[in-house]
Amino acid sequence: RKEKTMEASKFRAAQEPLKERYRKDAKAALLTLKAKARADDSTVTCKVETGRGLAVAGIHPKCGGSGLELCSGDLLLEALIACAGVSLKAAASVLDVPVKSATISAEGDVDLRGTLGITDGVPVGFKEIRLHFDVETDAAQSDLAQLLEMTERYCVVFQTIQNSPNTKARMSVVRN
User: Fold this and answer.
1) Counting C-beta atoms within 10 Å of the first and last residue's C-beta, which end of the chain has fewer, N or C?
2) CA pair distance 7, 147, nearest whole angstrom
3) How far apart are CA 111 and CA 119, in angstroms?
4) pTM score, two decimals?
């Protein structure tokens, strides 16, 4: 328990000067994250630069893909559970709720008739996403309710999905 408390106090100590800076200077709190991928003429795939190497995304087999590449829908759910897991641990540290371990899972429903453009009115994308936490802890149920609420509130990916940010796409032509 002492080791975990030390970890939580280090986390809080690391955040405090950042919080103070952002309270004084809202512009300093703005962060632009970037992602880059490359698609070429050889296959119906996209190579995503992850910071840890390339991830090759492709079409899901139920839409005609080979199944050898990563599905973008899976990647979205994986981003959600990664963010939710980190948010859970951060919230547990702040709230001092002991979490021995946690398994985070997500599943979502997609109607492929929309994705494949075969039925008018069927939307493209997830109809529903379900996020679940299996937590090994001795904490009281009231603490777990607060932990879940705080995890949802501060998980960037969860909040982004919930609140649909303004998005835009543009295209420019590169000529060789």
Assistant:
1) C
2) 17
3) 10
4) 0.87
Q: Is 72 helix (H, G, I), strand (E, B) or coil?
A: helix
If you search the block for the tokens 């999905």, which residue do you land on? 161
Which amino acid belongs to residue 83? C
CA–CA–CA angle 20, 31, 53 (5° rounding): 125
Dist CA 59 CA 68 (whole Å): 9
Q: Which residues pair with 110 in a beta bridge?
A: 126
On whether the CB atoms of residues 152 and 158 are closer than 8 A, the answer is: yes
Phi, psi of 39 (to 5 degrees): -120, 135
- DSSP assignment of 4-61 equals HHHHHHHHHHHHHHHHHHHHH-GGGG------EEE--SSSSEEEEE-SSSEEEEE--G
> Residue 173's pLDDT band (boundaries 50, 70, 90)?
very high
Q: Which two tokens stand for residue 2?
A: 């002492």
Q: Which two tokens stand for residue 121?
A: 């009115």
